[in-house]
Amino acid sequence: MVVDTPAWQHLKRHASDLRGQHLRDLFAADPNRFQRLTVRWKQSNDWLLDLSKQRITAETLPLLAELWQTADVPGWIAKMRAGAPINHTEGRAVLHIALRENPPRAEVAAVLDKMRGFCDAIHSGHWRGATGEPIRDIVNIGIGGSDLGPRMATQALAAQHVPHLRVHYVANLDGADLATTLAGLAPRTTLFIIASKTFTTQETMQNAASARAWLTAALGEAAVSRHFVAISTALDKVAAFGIDPANAFAFWDWVGGRFSLWSAIGLPLALAIGFDKFSAMLAGAAAMDEHFFSAPPQENLPALLAFIDLWNSDFLGLQTRALLPYSQSLGLLPRYLQQLEMESLGKQVGRDGKSVGCPTQPILWGEPGTNGQHAFYQLLHQGGRALSCEFIACRAADFPLAGHHEKLLANCFAQSAALMQGKTAAEALAELTAAVPPDPGFLAPYKVFPGNQPSTTLLLPKLDPHTLGALIALYEHKVFTLGALWNLNAFDQWGVEYGKQIANALLPMIEGKAPVADVDSSTAGLIAACKS
Ligand code: F6P
Questions:
Q1: Which residues pair with 232 in a beta bridge?
Q2: How far is the CA of 192 from the centre of ligand 1 (A)?
Q3: What letter does residue 460 receive in the DSSP assignment?
Q4: Bridge partners for 47 per DSSP
Q5: Domain positions in the chain
Q6: 509: CA distance to ligand 1 center in Å?
């Protein structure tokens, strides 16, 4: 077990040496702390990763790099690149990196060509709906990895959208999602993409059937071939649904759902921004791949993000990470990363079938700044819970409205500074005395900030397809690294199966087709309450 290795023990000792040290003192003790604990990625327009506000010292990263060697992360990278079945519980290779290699391998190139042709046909108006009108609205129906990636990236690249085409996403089984999306759309000019790796997912199949009913009620059965395309690894099931195989875009079982944005699953995004920009995103991801494969661990951005999560989770006991993009366009990044990180690493059983013996993936949540400041930041500052924050900001705005971006950056940097330094009772009292309120002593305790709340800041250039591609690949490789460090298979997701299994058993009871039996009294009571 990783917890029994000398590298782990060295980290444990180091953490105990650091206990009780306040970040404010670490900054005071070392004027070069920022330079020492900041890494730049110059190949790609100068990214900056500032770890100086994490509760680490110059000794911490070399110790974490020792763990990288102990866990043989380079060996795992080599296995991934060679196509070894490192998703051992499903017997699959993990090769999403092959989707952005240049030149692409033949099977990938064929699908990319087909995607380009389809994008061109939609954008030029060459592709017509059943009544001869061009397509104006695309509705992607998918869930999890078949939704979150393209949805997040479509919003992130809003500044790059092609004109005259709107791309919508429907995921939820709740009919409200599809119904409210379709409310403003015309069947004649709407095209559905049914995106599902397995083409069996209940939510997607139900939404697809309802979308089809909506379309055929208006235009008849024959219209399906002009208004439905599919993305799947199960092309037989696509055909069985009634979608013309010519309108199906394939991908492969060596692409995990939450790593599939780079495959045909990216089609709605490619439609939103145009295929050339989609290609630029692949190139950004490939640049990050190259960095991950070649940079030493202490200069390797994915490795460093992984180190910080592991350090915070296992040595400082921080079980939560707040992801705080100071970018409206990155507003869906927390949700996307919830699947990427928590579905990949929310596990306790290691590759040897035994408990890994330490906490793993922290709970990840977040909201774009500055909105979060007016909602939950109070708790971050004074709630008494230790957690780690991750700030993401861009040096230049993607929507450069005068007066906005400087204020956005000021807020971002102010928050990490406040969380780090806090405010002592003496400082609070001094401020109050200066302002001469009626009773400074009364208010002072409420104005104390403990500080010492660690954070990372990732400063990007401008948000464009290349930068976004590299950013997503950064987190993919971070997940890969943590999987190797914790000895977890980051590529399966058995934990989502059990609930599905029970839901399948309950459905006939709720539909009234089977007696309510073999269920606990709470579940039986809830079913009875719905029926009455
Ligand atoms: O949430 C479980 C899961 O299997 C995800 O891993 C996947 O992204 C999602 O369901 C959707 O699956 P599919 O693309 O097969 O519909």
A1: 250
A2: 19
A3: E
A4: 41
A5: 2-86+295-421+454-486, 101-273, 422-452, 494-531
A6: 25
Helix axes 465-486, 301-310, angle to 10 degrees: 50
Which residue shows structure tokens 């490939």? 286
| Residues involved in catalysis | 343, 374, 500
**Cβ-proximal residues to 503 (8 Å cutoff; 6+ apart), any chain:** 202
User: Whole-prediction pTM value?
Assistant: 0.97
CA nearest ligand 1 atom 9, residue: 144
Dist. CA 435 → ligand 1 center (Å): 57
Position in ligand 1 atom list of the atom nearest CA 203: 16
- Residue identifier of the C-alpha nearest atom 1 of ligand 1: 144
Q: Kindly state if the Cβ of 14 falls inside 6 Å of ligand 1.
A: no
**DSSP E strand stretches across 79-136:** none
Ligand 1 pocket residue status of 338, Cβ below 6 Å: no
Strand partners, 458: 49, 392
> Architecture of 2-86+295-421+454-486 per CATH?
3-Layer(aba) Sandwich (3.40)
Mutate to test the pocket of ligand 1, among 90, 146, 265 (most ligand atoms within 8 A of CB): 146
**How many C-beta atoms lie closer than 10 Å to residue 289's C-beta?**
23
Does residue 145 have its Cβ closer than 6 Å to ligand 1?
A: yes
Which has the closest alpha carbon to 3: 298, 297, 307, 315?
315
Q: Which tokens in the block code for residue 356?
A: 């890994």
Mean pLDDT in consecutive groups of 10 residues from the start of the chain, 532 residues: 95 97 97 97 86 97 98 98 98 98 97 98 98 98 98 98 97 98 97 97 97 98 97 94 93 97 98 98 98 97 98 97 98 98 98 97 97 97 97 97 98 98 95 77 93 98 97 98 98 96 96 96 96 80
**Right CATH for 101-273 from 3.40.50.2300, 3.40.50.10490, 3.40.50.720, 3.20.80.10:** 3.40.50.10490
